[in-house]
Amino acid sequence: MINFDQVTKRYPSSHEALSNVSFSIEQGEMVYVTGHSGAGKSTLLKLMTAIERPTTGTVLINNQNVSKLKEATLPYIRRKFGLVFQDHKLLYDRNCYHNVALALAINGITGTEAGKRIRAALDKVGLLGKEKSMPITLSGGEQQRLAIARAVASRPSILIADEPTGNLDKNYAADILTLFNAFQQVGVTVIIATHDALGNVNERNKILHLDHGKLVAAEVSA
Amino acid sequence: MKAWLTQHTQALNLVLRRFKTNKLSTLLICLAIGVTLALMSTLYVVLDSVNGLANRVKSESQMSVFLALEHDADAVATIKTALESNADIKTFKFVAKQEALSQLQAADANNDVLNSLENNPLPDAFFVQPSRLDADSIESLSNNLSQLDGVDEVVLDGAWIKRLNYLLALGNKAMLIMASLLAFALVAVIGNTVRMQIVTQHTEIELSRLIGATKSFIRRPFLYVGALYGLIGGLLALLITFAVIYLFNQSLAPLAAEYQTNFSLNFPNLFTCAITCLLALAVGLISAHLAVTKYLLTSSQ
Q: Which residues of B touch A150 (CB under 8 A)?
């Protein structure tokens, strides 16, 4: 599903964010990308989602080489992913319903079908009934759940979260990780970047540990 | 097709919602555009009306072809034939010297000088109305006529027609320059407004790009913003122009009456109204397109 082969990412400042990284992720896996701040986790996720292109090496997403794709086709690649950001990236000038609707509109899903999917997504994250609430009135955990609802509403096959619990207290963080586990149970590939200690790792979860841009460990938890 | 239409409807609804939320600022921007466009359309209407008046005056003007006092008996017939076959002449009239003197005497019966004349000092004359009224055509016709046998002098109102033509050409050029400058100003105003909106919606745009929005998806609402600003501005410009012409005509009527004319400024016709709105819409679209494209080119991803 996702293959990294000898991938290096060097920024114009000649800072090497990733160095010779190779791994593969299969459909339905739960993957944790760990490492300290600056280890290259965010760069790895940007390469996966075609936000960045590798300097050398190959990134294959569903057997499509991201490096060789035309810029105009990149948005269609990104639609395969549901993205959750540490800072939520919610739109505070519109309510919960319209925040989720944006992702569906981008995917060309509108009208009744969109309405059904928005309610289903909000239901999954426990926010059904808060469609008309403005994000600013939600707690930090609820805001992150709203961001997850937006990410899953278009039913992506891969869910990617960059430090999804970074700004949350322990209780909220546990809720969010439980939610990700639930998505993985129904066949969604979940990739989470985190620098937190892993306390919620289940059996058969894959862990990619980065250190200064190098993949120092790729293991499946026992 | 349905999805495409739905996306357009959504973009339009979004823009209308934002207009509704920011009523005052939207109105002020539209007014600024409307006033700028009104300057152009009012100038056009004034020039168009003056052009109409000038053409009317010019069409009433004529050229006097005076024959020599002593000319061959068949000179009048020869000149008449030449005038009839000249395509640059709309109509002409022959006034014999005796008829001219009679008219003069009839106009001023008590003029002793006229009555005391032993010989008729007036020449036979043709009064010619040219079919083309531009300065060059008139000058060329005058030269041709003065070369005919028996013609002594051709007197034309060419000098003032020439001046009038130059003035009108100057006016038209001034209008074109003004229109171009104002169009640039409009592009700047609308482009800057759209750019400000892009800045305020930067988060939404960046998020949309991250989650798979195409450039056209991002561009669409801003194009509607530009087009709507242009269209509303165009409609306001027409309203302002109609009001200005109405007020101007009210003041012009007594002055025109003094000159025994019914001159007034013409209200823009349906075609002019449609063209104004379409041009305004196009300028709005182009400005917005330039602003968004510049942003998309310079921003990341």
A: 211
CA A199 to CA A34: how far, in whole Å?
12
Q: Could you read off the pLDDT of B248-281 as tens digits, one per residue? A: 888 888 888 887 777 888 888 899 899 989 999 9
| pLDDT reported for residue A190 | 92
CB contact under 8 A, B213 and A75: yes
Are A138 and A195 contained in the same domain?
no
pLDDT band at A202 (very low <50, low <70, confident <90, very high): low
B45 and B103 inside one domain: no
d(CA B168, CA B54): 9
From A49, A89, A105, residue closest to B207, measured CB to CB? A89
CA distance B292 to chain A (A): 16
Question: How far apart are the C-alpha atoms of B151 and B129, rounded to whole Å?
Answer: 17
Q: Please say whether the beta carbons of B73 and B272 come within 8 A.
A: no
DSSP B129: E
Please enumerate in sequence order all residues whose Cβ is within 8 A of that of B253, keeping only pairs 6 or more positions apart, or say none. Answer: B264
Among residues B107, B138, B156, which one ends one of the domains?
Answer: B156
Which residues constitute the domain of residue A164?
1-80+157-222
Name the band, by pLDDT with cuts 50, 70 and 90, for residue B290: very high
Rounded to the nearest angstrom, the gap between the alpha carbon of residue A70 and the centroid of all alpha carbons in its chain is: 23
Handedness of CA A154, A157, A163, A165 (dihedral sign): positive
Same domain flag for A150 and A161: no
Which stretches within chain B are classed as H helix?
A: 2-21, 23-60, 75-84, 97-107, 112-116, 135-146, 158-200, 202-210, 215-258, 270-298
